[in-house]
Specification:
With about 300 residues, the protein is an alpha+beta fold. It contains 13 helices and 12 strands. The strands form 4 sheets. A 4-stranded mixed β-sheet has the order 9-10-11-12. Strands 1-3-2 form a 3-stranded antiparallel β-sheet. The longest helix is centred in the last third of the chain and has 20 residues.
């Protein structure tokens, strides 16, 4: 009975199964060792086996490495799995936690100490990097021309928006991070002359703060006085800390009337006991870490004040 369940699971998993999975399905250790020693099960990766009746494929190899090392299919392998036009599954590339998967053969291994940023998704039963992260990883290993075609493909198919790609870029931005400069260059040409809708930008900043480990801010929050009357509606806010974030967009604030009203509104918000932070597109696109650090410090400061 156990062997039947194991076989069904192997069929769902490109012919492979881990030792732990086999035992969970009812196979005894003695049965498992017999299957391996007789050659019915062949070793596909450490602690992962493939049935002899199923040929080894890129999919079985990818899944086996993911099982064995806590890995995630990445780069060109992930591009083929999503799929992104122009990529086919003809190689094995994975991201692993630090120190994992050393010495694996027949695969390209990349280490990451922020596996959470990969935002793993399942494609064809195999865990792989999210689409946006995959594009960023590709930016580090393909030519600029192929990267442009890749970005064109995901935008044309409607799989991602420009704001999604910029969000991935800023959430991963750090000096020397492979792929960031190339992707930023590719996106800059597309953003030139375009105004990012303020609602999209607010969501992008919110995602950036959450990825940095901060709590999720409220969008379009209404600040009210003690009597319930409206003071202002701010782009993002942390109501429990009374910290508001205003995004200065030339698209929405490029006339004298808006200029005057914005400053009056921000003064009133400050007088209502709120800390108001102002950021520009340059802060978001070019200095995301500094933006997050400023917000974190403001939240810490207000928390300290509340505790006094």
């Amino acid at each position: 009975m156990g062997e039947e369940r194991v076989l069904r699971r192997m069929r769902r998993q490109h012919g492979v199964i881990s030792r732990a999975q086999a035992l969970d399905e009812g196979i005894t250790r003695r049965q498992l060792d017999r299957l391996v020693s007789s050659g019915v099960w062949e070793r596909e990766a450490a602690g992962v086996y493939r049935h002899e009746a199923v040929p080894s494929t890129f999919r079985s190899r990818l899944l086996a490495l993911c099982m064995a090392h806590g890995a995630v299919a990445s780069h060109r392998s992930a591009a083929a799995l999503h799929p992104i036009e122009g990529y086919r599954l003809d190689r094995v590339e994975v991201i692993v936690p630090p120190g994992k998967g050393r010495g694996i053969r027949g695969a390209r291994r990349y280490e990451s100490n922020r596996m959470d940023l990969a935002k793993s998704v399942e494609r064809d039963g195999i865990p792989c990097t999210s689409l946006g992260r995959t594009v960023l990883d590709l930016a580090a290993v393909v030519s600029p021309r192929r990267l442009d075609r890749t970005v064109d493909a995901v935008l044309r198919d409607g799989q991602l928006r420009l704001s999604d790609l910029y969000g991935v870029l800023t959430s991963h931005a750090r000096r020397g991070r492979p792929g960031c400069a190339a992707l930023k260059s590719s996106l800059a040409e597309r953003f030139e002359g375009m105004a990012v809708p303020l609602s999209d930008w607010s969501r992008m900043v919110s995602d950036l703060l959450v990825d940095a480990g901060l709590e999720s801010p409220a969008l379009e929050h209404r600040v009210r006085r003690a009597d319930g009357s409206l003071v202002a509606q701010v782009d993002l806010a942390f109501p429990s800390r009374r910290v508001a974030i205003e995004l200065d967009s030339a698209r929405w604030h490029d006339n004298r009337e808006s200029f005057v009203q914005d400053r009056r509104r921000r003064n009133e918000t400050t007088l209502a006991g709120w800390t108001v932070l102002n950021f520009t597109w340059n802060d978001y696109a070019d200095h995301p870490a500094a933006l997050c650090d400023t917000v974190a410090k403001a939240l810490a400061a207000t928390e300290a004040n509340f505790c006094q």
